[in-house]
């Protein structure tokens, strides 16, 4: 079969590529492969959460992750802006309670449109979609089982496993019966009310942040540090901002028990250095992490090696320990658990399999954003990791606190809650870390990402013309290092 300027060899198999997993990475790779002339199939089957929550095609991101999270985050921000609106001359009723049902309905309507859009896109690109659970029989044969237990098998030249992960529950009696996770939160039929969140991941802080903003009483139990894997200076600033705005953080504690009260509430007991304490809540959310959804795939039986955490061991080219089986995304060992990296990795793999490209995914300098109430965008090294790798004497941290211009209306807005810093390697003056804490962090950070891919110096920042007045321009104006001025508070706005 001739396609463009390359030749696809005839195959004894039904498919050239079969994708297991219909999330962002699976959809991106399957559509790209089909566009390049490969015969592609895709299987996706959502196993309901312990609370019975299920969803449509699209995976975690669109159904129970990035998309509903950001929509609810913005719903909370809209409410907080009522004070700013009033100070700017609008007549606002600040006492109107939030309508959870109306927000949930709007969020779910948007998600359902996306579910059908994905099915239409697969069909239009001639990707055969199976709403069935996949199990490997051998390295070329897959058994597919539908919701009624009916089975069929397909054969394929190559297999891509991109099944993502599912939330973890604490190892406590009644945990799965009484707790929910992010799999359930965004479609709750009733407002969560007084809420306890267990965990300090970005999921925990994002959900805790928007629930507080929507008017709920929120407590977060933190075992050790906030946002493990992220810059800890920034993580602690996020924690302080959240506490200042009403979210309660209890640090250094672990849950010990969870039980239902006679009134239908949930009692949780936790312990820490100061002993035991307890609270009664309407909703308890587990946000202690995620595990790879690989248990039912039977991959080890066909020779695919799993790490101790259940993730699939992969090489730089996304190949597993079986020659024709690949894995990307959250279920692949050592890969970042982010939608955009899975999307690009999937497209690049499809191009390699079609003989169109040889390039490998570069995971070193990618941008990310945490949608906490004060948003955080970052690229590259954290301050801690840079010092650990290159030595404190070889790193400069340029930084500054600032106040967004749009915060000037409402006099209770903090003067210096927002913050930015650049991590600079002194040996060559290269900026190897970018950290922005403030409004619209995703929009600000995305524009800087391409410069980090190409390599950027502090001098490049210093001699770039800024757009004024913006929050992004603050990242170009750092003149002091932490050694020179630990506080570095911005004064004035023009010049």
What report would you give on this structure?
With 495 residues, this protein is α/β, with parallel strands linked by helices. Helix content is 28%, strand content 24%. The chain contains 13 helices and 23 strands. The protein has helices at 24-35, 59-64, 66-80, 82-87, 100-124, 175-178, 182-185, 202-213, 232-244, 339-353, 383-390, 441-454, 458-462; strands spanning 2-3, 6-7, 15-20, 40-43, 128-130, 133-138, 141-145, 151-161, 165-167, 195-198, 218-222, 248-251, 254-260, 266-272, 275-281, 283-286, 290-292, 325-327, 367-370, 376-380, 395-402, 418-425, 430-437. The strands form 6 sheets. Strands 3, 4, 5, 6, 7, 8 and 18 form a 7-stranded mixed sheet that branches. The protein is globular, with a radius of gyration of 24 Å. The termini are far apart.
């Amino acid at each position: 079969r001739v396609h463009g300027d390359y030749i696809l060899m005839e195959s004894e198999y039904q498919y050239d590529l079969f994708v297991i997993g219909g999330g962002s990475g699976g959809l991106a790779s399957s559509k790209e492969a089909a566009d390049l002339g490969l015969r592609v199939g895709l299987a996706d089957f959502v196993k309901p959460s312990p609370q019975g929550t299920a969803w449509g095609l699209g995976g975690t991101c669109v159904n129970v992750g990035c998309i509903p999270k950001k929509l609810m985050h913005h719903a909370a921000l809209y409410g907080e802006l009522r004070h700013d609106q009033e100070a700017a001359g609008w007549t606002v009723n600040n006492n109107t309670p939030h309508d959870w049902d109306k927000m949930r309905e709007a969020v779910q309507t948007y998600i359902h449109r996306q579910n059908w859009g994905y099915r239409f896109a697969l069909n239009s690109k001639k990707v055969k979609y199976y709403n069935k659970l996949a199990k490997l029989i051998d390295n070329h044969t897959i058994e597919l089982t539908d919701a009624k237990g009916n089975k069929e098998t397909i054969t394929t030249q190559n297999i891509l496993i991109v099944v993502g992960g599912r939330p973890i529950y604490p190892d406590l009696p009644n945990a799965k019966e009484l707790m929910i996770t992010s799999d359930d939160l965004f479609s709750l039929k009733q407002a969560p009310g007084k809420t306890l969140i267990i965990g300090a991941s970005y999921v925990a802080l994002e959900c805790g942040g928007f629930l507080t903003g929507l008017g709920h009483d929120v407590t977060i139990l933190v075992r050790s540090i906030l946002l493990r894997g992220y810059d800890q200076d920034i993580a602690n600033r996020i924690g302080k901002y959240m506490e200042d705005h009403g979210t309660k953080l209890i640090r250094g504690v672990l849950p010990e028990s969870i039980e239902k009260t006679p009134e239908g509430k949930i009692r949780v007991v936790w312990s820490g250095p100061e002993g035991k304490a307890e609270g009664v809540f309407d909703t308890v959310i587990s946000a202690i992490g995620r595990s790879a959804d690989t248990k039912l795939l039977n991959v080890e039986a066909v020779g695919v090696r799993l790490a101790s955490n259940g993730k699939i061991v992969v090489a730089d080219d996304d190949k597993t320990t079986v020659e024709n089986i690949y894995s990307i995304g959250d279920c692949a060992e050592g890969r970042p658990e982010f939608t955009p990296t899975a999307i690009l990795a999937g497209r690049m793999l499809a191009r390699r399999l079609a003989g169109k490209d040889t390039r490998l995914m570069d995971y070193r300098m990618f941008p990310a954003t945490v949608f906490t109430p004060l948003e955080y965008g970052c690229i590259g090294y954290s301050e801690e990791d840079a010092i650990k790798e290159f030595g404190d004497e070889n790193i400069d941290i340029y930084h500054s606190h600032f106040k967004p211009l749009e915060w000037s209306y409402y006099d209770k807005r903090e003067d210096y809650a927002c913050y930015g810093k650049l991590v600079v390697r002194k040996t060559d003056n290269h900026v190897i870390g970018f950290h922005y804490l403030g409004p619209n962090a995703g929009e600000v950070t995305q524009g800087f990402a391409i410069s980090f891919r190409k390599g950027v110096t502090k001098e490049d920042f210093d001699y770039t013309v800024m757009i004024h007045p913006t929050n992004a321009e603050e990242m170009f104006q750092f003149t002091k290092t932490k050694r020179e001025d630990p506080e570095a508070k911005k004064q004035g706005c023009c010049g």
